[in-house]
Amino acid sequence: MFVLKAHRATSSLNPGKGGVPMEHRIVRQRRNVRAVVMLVLGVLAPATIHAQQPIVPLQLSIADPGARSMGFGGAFVALGDDATAAFANPAGLVQLLKPEFSIEGKWRSYSESYTRSGRIEGPPTGIGIDTLEGLAAARSNKSITGLSFLAFAYPFEKGSLALFRHEYARHEFSGATQGLFGAGSDCCQPRYVDQQASSKLEFVSFGISGAYRVNDTFNIGLGLVYHDTLLVADVSQYFPDDDTPLSRYEANSYLADRLILSQRSISSDTDLTPTVGFLWRPTDSWSVGGVYRGGLETNYRVEARAGEAGDFGVPPGEIIFSATTRPIEFPDVYGMGVAYRRPDGRFTVSFQWDHIEYSSIPKSLELDDQTLDDADEWHIGAEYVFLNAAPVVALRFGAWLDPDHQMRATSDDPYTRALLPRGEDEWHRSAGLGLAMRRFQVDLAVDLADRLDTVSLSAVYNF
């Protein structure tokens, strides 16, 4: 979650300038602010230079590539027996017997919940849209399709080398608030400024990975990944449609002449990170794998411009704030897995544990009013292969636990706590189908959860 932390102030519009009296005040921004930006794998609140923190959810997937891995519920680090191992666990590349091309396309459907309206504190007045007890949520629904993975792997006598492109994350969001009210008396009912927000994120990684066979049972792998990050978040704040007392309780039309300020936050950066993995096969049926992936760092820039309704002492459209934030440190990831394959190759079951150091994000930004816990993901998957079929058919099923990794408030401020509550754990369920021929293999998989549904289609060609 990206959050720009700012001091909040409550002030009235100037009655001498066509404003409204204090009893119908609106919570608005101050000029002196302190910018702090943060990104969390799960929810994004883009940095803003205002007193309020807009919630712009974001799904940042760290799942291994390939429909086969998805069908296993992501429990692939102890298997990694195709070109997708270049990312999942480079040590697995040593199992390849022939040069191999791998390609994957994904369809993702995001359904992101965010706070839209309601009462942060106090009972509703029953006037206009101020009728809700508590907060109301809305959802941003987006679907994205594209190439997610591409790799070429070439085996040698005692190892393999692979080049790959991996779409680490791709996400879009849009949403708006329509009346958030704070506690007050009969004469004073504060309303927080309404907002429109959107974001677009693309993280693409290019890497080279190699594997070496130490002996007949133990393999090691190394990788170097170049990350190209792009994230653009736009937030605009609006006063209600006019300055009459009643309009403070009505829906907002987001009129151009009621724009207070507009802000763009952008990250366009690159970084290099290492990947290290191992694969140990103590017997023909059992395998144990582990991987470490270093987290990338990226800089983030925030820029805000005055709107027609903003009183900043500059013409509309002029920059009123510009700053580059501290580097955001993305989590390091540790994975460990074990897999069992029946001697005849018909049945395979795999388990995996991933530890993700989400806490590195708030620590890198020195946040003192928000926190984020590290997470432990648990993956399990199984495959049954019909070896006598032509082509060979494989059925796969899996599930995995995605623990809550949503930024949550630690301050006593009711507004921050309302917009940054504790999240919920989420279970993903997956299924897959594979068709294998002598040189060609096609895999299809689906991964279903409350916030994110994914369909993956991948193909492998060896020669």
SSE blueprint and pairings:
Elements: E1 9-11, E2 26-28, H1 67-71, H2 85-88, E3 100-119, E4 135-155, E5 159-176, E6 180-181, E7 191-192, E8 194-213, E9 218-238, E10 259-280, E11 286-293, E12 297-298, E13 301-306, E14 319-324, E15 328-329, E16 333-341, E17 347-356, H3 360-365, E18 370-371, E19 375-386, E20 392-402, E21 408-409, H4 414-419, E22 426-436, E23 440-448, E24 452-462
Parallel strand pairs: 2-7, 3-6
Antiparallel strand pairs: 1-2, 3-4, 3-24, 4-5, 5-8, 6-7, 8-9, 9-10, 10-11, 10-13, 11-16, 12-15, 13-14, 16-17, 17-19, 18-21, 19-20, 20-22, 22-23, 23-24
What is this entry, summarized?
The chain has a single domain (9-462), classed as Beta Barrel (Porin).
Q: What does this entry look like structurally?
A:
There is one protein chain. By secondary structure, this protein is mostly beta strands. The chain has a single domain (9-462), classed as Porin. 5% of the residues lie in helices and 50% in strands. The strands form three sheets. The chain has a 14-stranded antiparallel barrel with strand order 3-4-5-8-9-10-11-16-17-19-20-22-23-24. It has a two-stranded antiparallel sheet with strand order 12-15. Strand 16 (333-341) and strand 17 form a beta hairpin. The protein is elongated and about 80 Å long. The two termini are 44 Å apart.
Give the strand order, joined by hyphens, for the main sheet.
3-4-5-8-9-10-11-16-17-19-20-22-23-24
The number of strands is: 24
- Order of secondary-structure elements: EEHHEEEEEEEEEEEEEEEHEEEEHEEE
Net shape: elongated
